[in-house]
Fold each of these.
Amino acid sequence: MNTPLIVAPQWVADRLEDPEIIIIDCRFALNDPHLGRQQYLASHLPGAYYLDLNRDMSSPVQQHGGRHPLPDMGELARKLEGLGIKFNQTQVVVYDDSRMAFAARLWWLFRHLGHDRVSLLDGGFSAWQTAGYPVSEEVPEPRLGGSFTPQVQADAVVDIEAVKARKDLPGVVLIDSRERDRYLGEREPIDPVAGHIPGAINYPWQEVTDDRGFVKSQEAQRQRWQDIEADRELIVYCGSGVTACVNLLSLELAGIQGSKLYAGSWSDWCSYA
């Protein structure tokens, strides 16, 4: 069974009672880390669980490694198993309300763990509400029968040493996913140093979706990357390894395989400045 990468609200609504599908809400706000869970408790898709960017999808911040270091993969796998997810059997649907910023991070983490059966809700929670589908305040009990033994795709992620060693090689393209003014160093609202990694080119992550949070067409994704030659090694980063995953999603939709995430991203790079 093929797993669609992007699913419409109706697709999810038609499958709310399907025991083989698990829905995960990962709404979050970088400027208010408690808001996402509060939103979830107030209203979410029926049966949806909640995973938090800071607590579940990241590990504690250190001196280096960026603002959202990758979580311990064994610990994350245990959490997913605890929700009743069966490795590469359960169909997972993830959503946020931030143009895929956090849903794409969770999608990428699933893929990094080797679990490919993950779809993203097009338009997020707002699209679900606008379509008039039901919502719930009930926090579901974890399902029994989870079994999640990951097969970590280690080559999907790189660290700062790999970026330094590879970024100037022929055939390697370094992609900065942040807003244009942050890439240019004209504005830096979060990290202590402005600018970008030398040699990086800019593909702002917001271009993947429209203003309402719907993913642009597959053809639009292909056109977006058309200036990059085939068979390049792509290393993608952002501020902290979160919104870069939206570009990785775009590359997947465009049919470009094998792109890598620099997980520490700019916040790791500039910590050595």
Note: The beta strands are 6-7, 21-25, 49-50, 91-95, 118-121, 157-158, 172-176, 201-202, 233-237, 260-262.
Amino acid sequence: MKIDQTRKQIIDGTELLVLKVGSRLLAADDSDARRQRIEQLIGQVAKLRERFEVVLVSSGAIGAGMAMTDAVKRPVDVARLQGLAAIGQSRLMSLYENACQQHGFHCGQLLLSRDDVKERNRHLNVRNCLRALLTDNVLPIINENDTVSVDEIRFGDNDLLAALVATMLRADLTILLTTVDGFYRRTDGELTERLSVIDEITDEIRDMAQGTGDQLYSTGGMISKLNAAEITLAAGEHLWIADGTDFAVLDSILAGEDIGSLFRTTRPRMSGSKRWLAFFTESTGELIVDEGAVKAVCEDGRSLLPSGLIRVEGEFGKGDTVAVCAPDGRRIALGMTNYTAAELNQIKGLRSPQIHELLHRDAYEEAIHRDNMVLVPAGQ
């Protein structure tokens, strides 16, 4: 396999990486086979740790629970899935710890839900814990907390969580190991050409991920991987999808070989405050703006002025996060507002002198200052 200089440069510039392993890669007919798969994986992770700090995001708790209870078919009932996750997670971590000890290090378990990374104090606690584990030469192993989560069981297979953890830690590279060797162009319903490098996730790319009838190319398959890539690219970091059926693929990745699909960012790295705004906050309202404001915000990098507001949706206070939307409803940005919803309803469409006169006090020139606003990638 030929060496790709783009990939080699990215690998050479990587200090911290997040590695995500899908549940299908850890599936096995019996406990011995599962143990061997995990030992093979950790053998490769040990090599990665010689060069980088590594965080492992691992699915597989439900599968392990199914094996332990002799379940033949994956249940559809959420409560039963949660129960299987509770049974399987302890077994999974026991296998990981035993494998890590063979290479002279320990692992630490973090079970997370989306709320854990989106609530500010919990977010900081998670980030501090991960950094402490890395400092202590412990391999962090993260899984979604399937025993209390609902949506996470149904969608994503940890792709989104891996991207959010990578963004939280400012990881240089995220690697998603799956059961196909990359992202493929789809022509007339057939998968044809592997896309080696993807610099931008266009509408055409999204359409290719919509499905071919195969489970991988449906919701929770390649769509979730595109969603993960959009996050890392927007943050200014790279993501690599590769076939992990043989974990030795990580040797090829280390060598910079042209395998899989590399989502290569062309953007500067996002600041910490803008990462928080872009990926971890929930908007409490919407500001619908005119086309002039869309251009000012998206193309000129300017603040959002009250004069560009058409309509205010929702109830929110000063300092809350709101979505900025184009006239057609597309989200174009997220930002922290300088005004309450009631005040913005009063001053929408007005210029600064009119605002001062109406509010009878000194007022902000901007509805949202550009330093407190981040553009939303197309498609999100």
Note: The CA atoms of residues 161 and 253 lie 22 Å apart.
Amino acid sequence: MQERSQAMIIDVHAHYHPRAYNEAIERAGVVRPGGASMAGHPDTDDEDHIQKRLELMAQAGVGLQVLSPAASRAPYAKDETAAVEAAKLGNDIYARLVARYPDKFKAFVSLPLPHIDASLRELRRGLDELGMIGINLHISVHDRSVAEDEFLPIYEEMNRRHGIIFYHPWGNGICSPMITDYSFSGAVGTSMEDTVIALHLIAKKIPARFPNITFIIPHLGGLIPMLLQRLDNQFSMRQRGLPEPPSVTARRFYYDTVGHGSHAALTCAWKAFGADHILPGSDFPVLLSFETYERTFAWIREVGLPAADVEQILERTAPSVLRLG
């Protein structure tokens, strides 16, 4: 691999939906027919889409994207055969793109959940044979939090490997009609899902039980940056036996910068977690509906954070956390 520039942005939160994979998750009933693609965006494995993606990366100063499926597009089929077929297909296609452009793309392994034994097999194949750098877990599987006990074998294996887990919302509005009945699943529900997975991990003591895992939560952690003191005051009263204050555990996680350009949100996360626990993310290609790819990262320089912390967020945290330095 060629030596990378220190100034390169690594986008930890980028989506990619090859056509064959879209068709597989549609056949499996994960999404409705025609519901997997993001029309109008460079999102598929069509050659013109790949070249457009590379052009946008160059314009934005992004040297490398880490690929994973977007909301509701993980291969979580109830039928095990269909789930395994979709997961293997998606991971193989991701691996081929990485092999073609090893300096431009890496990928997280997608698992055929809720099928644990099959997921462990695919986890090992993805990390050991395909060379992926971690795993992707959507925050819920058929409305079950991935912090629940049935998923512990995944955490045990990732802990053994000192592995990286990147979480992503499913898009179910935390199963609440107060979100879904008002069509807030995207605008509000995703941030609620981010918040909930952080709280579930803390409540289930997963970081303490599996201390070798690196946990990455998207969208600046949802509401977590604003709740740290309240969690220490009230959460601990209900959750007995926590090994440390919730705020301490929350600061052990890493968070990406997807914030729709909100200076207030980034400032809050920076004050809560520190620049060394924030890394670049774009939600590519979702935010292209609202801003250019270049703008997704340019606004971070305009928030007013210390220059050294901006450099830490954009250039230094990701190579260290992802072990790509």
Note: The first strand starts at residue 9 and ends at 15.
Amino acid sequence: MAKMLLCLAVVALAALATAAPKPEEKFTTKYDNINIDEILANKRLLNNYLNCILDKPKARCTADALELKRSIPDALTNECAKCSEKQKELSEKVIRHLVEHEKASWDEVKAKFDSTGIYEKRYEKILKEKGVAV
């Protein structure tokens, strides 16, 4: 009888542990306050970020560029579910800048992260509503 109660207790604890809500996973907000306008206005800084995320030879990746590079695939796949509101704003601003001013770089980014065009199709309507013509 004691063994049966112990077994039931273990099963009940296991059920509670798996049913307990897990904290929502988010991307780090450590870099949310970077000056994105300064980066976009400075060709050298922008190219450093682009070279890093595109795995260009001799690219020097800063900590924030590495974090961005690691986050892009998940953000695309999961509709930026782990993004903060600030990260969504910054993403839109960067995409707009690349599309309007750095088309060749935008094409390279798309080739690396969206070679099949699935994400462009998925987000095209949203971007157009925000005035970004991809």
Note: Confidence is low (pLDDT under 50) at residues 1-22.
